[in-house]
Amino acid sequence: MIETALHNLLIADASITAIMGSRVYVGSLPQSVSYPNICIIEISPNPMFGTRCGFPHYQLSCRAESYDAAYALADAVVNVLQGYRGTQSGYGIEHIEYITRNGIYDEKARKWHVPVEVKVKFKKDEV
Predict the structure, then answer these.
(1) What is the reported pLDDT for 126?
(2) Nearest C-alpha neighbor of 57 from the set 14, 89, 97
(3) pLDDT tens-digit profile of 36-81?
(4) In the prediction, which pLDDT does 83 show?
(5) Distances in Å between the alpha carbon of 107 and those of 60, 65, 102, 115?
């Protein structure tokens, strides 16, 4: 899963781990979760059928207790991923493109949520 590559890119970066340790999750958050954290969710698979390529869109949900902390985390995510090219977790990532972000306050959880949307163009390495 390309999500694993995104996860590994984020937890390998010192600016991310300085803010939140290794609390990067794929698909959903655990029931008892500490903040700040990131959850990676595929929002548009966009596969190139019959090939080992794709260009899906992902949401990286940056959550924190304060507005400033949530936006600092989102900024760090954008700085790590925007324009990335390289190999990670068996995927040849040709390009990661930052699309947008916006912040919302989750009244129920009493946390700030800044979803960052990116598009990933990749090829799965032959195994």
Answers:
(1) 47
(2) 97
(3) 999 999 998 765 555 555 678 999 999 999 999 999 999 999 999 9
(4) 94
(5) 20, 11, 16, 16
Q: Which two tokens stand for residue 59?
A: 């949401």
- Token couple for 50: 């019959």
- Ramachandran angles phi, psi of 95, nearest 5°: -170, 140
User: Residue 54: which domain range?
Assistant: 2-124
Q: What is the CATH number of the domain that holds 23?
A: 3.30.2000.30
* Cβ-based neighbour number of residue 47 at 10 Å: 11
Listed in sequence order, the DSSP H helices in 1-127 are: 2-11, 14-20, 67-81
Phi and psi dihedrals of 37, rounded to 5?
-155, 170
| Residues in contact with 33: Cβ distance below 8 Å, sequence separation at least 6, in sequence order | 23, 25
Closest Cα partner for 52 from 94, 13, 23? 94
Q: How far apart are CA 104 and CA 107, in angstroms?
A: 9
Give the chain's domain count: 1
Which helix (H) or strand (E) covers residue 91, if one does? strand 91-101
